[in-house]
Design goal:
373 residues; alpha/beta; 2 domains; eight-stranded mixed sheet
Length: 373
């Protein structure tokens, strides 16, 4: 049996030595034959902040060496912050990973490299791994860009082609996807359909990240779909004191059999990820994908659309600085008058709303509901 440990998002600012796990959890990471995490941001000190909507994230290069030291073998780079500091940020991250002897996947210096899957012989098992993200800033999609570097797009036909090809060559195919609405406990219907389609093409396991909170899992035929593992270690800004109570998975792969898993429940305390005393209610999260899902899905999209209108549409249409609240808006106006703000260009905010697939799905679904009422 081959064991793969897979966890969610990693952004580290507080641990300068890059050590984010406590010893008990580190022992579990090292017990796997191969361990994987989503490396959510490039390393600090390279490149310049790119024109975009939203925050720019970066983390110390020591995070990479720390993750390697604690047993991680692969960094997933296809995420919405990987291009925050442009090509230089990606190149520096790739170089740092190479020096630390840790593999990378999902973002690179050109389209072909970013979309190339990883084929790994682990014990007697050959595993094919694909990593891709929803369309946000830094995506390499159909639009002509000046930059060649970026990350793979989860809805690109190349992803389908890769899964089909890997199924012929590998014992197991794993797709790691970075997509969805943030901070909701159920996935959007569009991602459920997409992930099941990838399973129909040959994926044995689909593992999601990006929502920052745990979501449930389900079986599709003999494949496993985990919609969100939530944060593993994430201490940026407002999230610095979050406990990130979530779970990772220890996949168990046996040639000729369907994949199975054990959940590894974890929590962040005192700037370290440790094993949680109280488990995430994974059964409840998974049951939410069944009876009652449609109603909860409608409610989620209506709430999300309200936030999108307040924080994106109004912001992009307003001639004045606006952050979604009266108090915050007044502070932004004052800061602008004093010359302390360099505001994002309105078209970038509009583009973020239009390009962000999770936002588009939520807005469309909410408007369809409103149109019927």
């Amino acid at each position: 049996m081959t064991k793969l440990f897979v966890c969610g998002d990693v952004v580290n600012y507080q641990n300068k030595d890059g050590i984010v796990c406590d010893p008990d959890l580190e022992a579990i990471v090292k017990s796997a034959d191969y361990s994987i995490c989503n490396f959510e941001a490039p390393i600090i000190g390279f490149g310049t902040p790119q024109p975009k909507s939203g925050p720019h994230l970066a983390q110390p290069a020591s995070t990479i060496t720390g993750l390697k030291q604690q047993g991680f073998d692969l960094l997933l780079l296809a995420n919405n912050h990987m291009f925050d500091y442009g090509t230089e940020g990606i190149v520096a991250t790739l170089n740092a990973a190479h020096l630390a002897s840790i593999e990378t996947l999902g973002a690179d210096v050109d389209e072909n490299s970013a979309y190339t899957p990883l084929i790994k012989k682990i014990g007697d098992i050959t595993v094919g791994i694909v990593n891709a993200c929803e369309a946000q800033f830094g995506v390499i999609d159909h639009f002509q860009r000046e930059e060649k570097a970026g990350y793979a797009w989860i809805n690109h036909p190349k992803i389908d082609t890769a899964v089909i090809a890997l199924k012929k060559e590998c014992d197991f195919v794993i797709v790691c996807a970075h997509a969805g609405l943030e901070n909701y406990s159920i996935p959007q219907k569009e991602w459920r359909v997409r992930y099941k389609h990838l399973c129909d093409l040959g994926a044995d396991v689909v593992i999601g990240s990006h929502p920052h909170v745990p979501q449930g899992y389900e079986e599709h035929n003999e494949s496993l779909i985990f919609y969100s593992l939530g944060n593993f270690y994430f201490d940026y800004g407002y999230a610095v004191n979050y406990e990130n109570h979530s779970y990772a998975v220890m996949l168990e792969l046996i040639k000729g059999k369907a994949p199975s898993f054990e959940a590894v429940h974890h929590i962040t305390q005192n700037k370290k990820v440790r094993l949680a005393d109280k488990e995430v209610d994974l059964k409840k999260l998974s049951e939410a994908l069944g009876s009652g899902y449609e109603t909860a899905h409608d409610e989620m999209n209506l709430r999300a659309y309200e936030n999108i209108v307040r924080c994106n549409l109004i912001t992009s249409a307003s001639k004045l600085p606006f952050d979604g609240t009266v108090r915050g808006t007044l502070k932004e106006i004052a800061a602008t008058i004093l010359g302390r703000r360099k505001h994002v260009k309105k078209p970038l905010t509009q583009l973020h709303f239009m390009r962000n697939e999770a936002y588009y799905y939520a807005a469309r679904h909410a408007l369809e509901i409103k149109a019927k009422s």
